[in-house]
Write a structure and sequence with these properties.
The chain contains eleven helices and ten strands. It has 300 residues and is α+β, with helices and mostly antiparallel strands. It has two domains: 177 residues, Jelly Rolls (Sandwich), CATH 2.60.120; 112 residues, Orthogonal Bundle (Arc Repressor Mutant, subunit A). It is globular, with a radius of gyration of 19 Å.
């Protein structure tokens, strides 16, 4: 139940959501053990999914980006990423992480259970909860990091009863996250409306990202004002619509650079960025190398 390697392959849908299954309905979780590098394409690229993700630093310092937030993760530190939050990981040298990507139903047993309502949904619905970080050297965080490590260990060893052991430790890990929330409030009606509008705007981005669309166009696709579009995206994804659009464009550009034999200027235009120089600047900001360097490294 552990995927190991220099970089685990991720399969993305048109809107940037990871579609590879993390386990199955009977046991919705997968563990990862990944070695990262500072080379172009050597980190975990921007992506998001409907499952929770908990990342444990193992070797070297890592930089974890979640929405608009960035944090340094030292060996032994851990970070929890809420559902549908765009995130990426990089390192300045050679680093390693272990992680668990899992559905809330693994902990609760189902969306209609009391456990789901009390211990899972409040985390999903907590306003502004994009991530929670736990530090190795903080005594108050030791329990959370230990539970996460033991859950991943259970997935790796696959001993007798490992499913129960992994579920137990992740359940206790979720309790530690709840302790960080101040009277978390569920907002089912607002959440439903916000989710629907965000989904409409995401579909529009997926269909039109290669065109010169703007934040005004995205808001209009959801039938809302620019201010409301920003609120919906921030609540659902931790980033605004413009940043979401740019992550989508650059991730598609990275795929084209890796595979398509086309000039870099055409790659830029293919993802809706008309200026090659602007494309290079934007790409370097997220990938820390030029588009040409990215292509040369992957092909070499």
């Amino acid at each position: 139940m552990i995927y190991a390697g220099p970089r685990c392959k991720m399969i993305m849908s048109d809107n940037g959501n990871e579609v590879a299954s993390h386990g199955d309905e009977s046991f919705p979780i997968l563990g990862y053990d990944e070695t990262l590098s500072a080379a172009p394409g050597g980190g975990v690229p921007w992506h998001w999914h409907a499952d929770f993700e908990a990342i444990l630093g193992v070797e070297a310092d890592l930089t974890v980006h979640v929405g608009e937030n960035s944090l340094e993760l030292a060996p032994g530190d851990a970070v929890f990423v809420n559902t549908n939050r765009p995130h990426a990981v990089e390192t300045t040298g050679t680093g390693r992480l272990r992680s668990a990507v899992y559905s809330g139903t693994l902990v609760s047993g189902g969306r209609d259970t009391a456990i789901h309502r009390r211990y899972v949904q409040p985390i999903v619905d907590a306003d502004g909860l994009d991530l929670v970080v736990f530090r190795k050297n903080d005594k108050g965080d030791a329990s959370a990091t230990a539970h996460l490590a033991q859950a991943i260990d259970a997935l790796e060893k696959e001993g007798d009863g490992f499913e129960i052991e992994a579920r137990e430790h992740l359940s206790l890990f979720m309790v530690e996250i709840l302790k960080r929330l101040d009277a978390p409030k569920t907002r089912p009606k607002a959440k439903s409306v916000s989710s629907e509008r965000a989904a409409q705007m995401c579909d529009y981005i997926a269909e039109h990202y290669a065109q010169g669309i703007t934040a005004v166009d995205i808001a209009a696709a959801g039938g809302v004002s620019e201010r409301e579009a920003l609120r919906c995206f921030t609540r659902e994804f931790g980033v605004g619509p413009s940043r979401y659009l740019m992550i989508k464009r650059l991730s598609c550009a990275a795929e084209l650079l890796a595979g398509a034999p086309m000039p870099i200027s055409e790659v830029a235009r293919a993802v809706g960025i008309q200026s090659p120089s602007n494309f290079a600047q934007l790409f370097r900001r997220d990938y820390h190398c030029t588009p040409r360097e990215y292509r040369q490294h992957l092909r070499g």
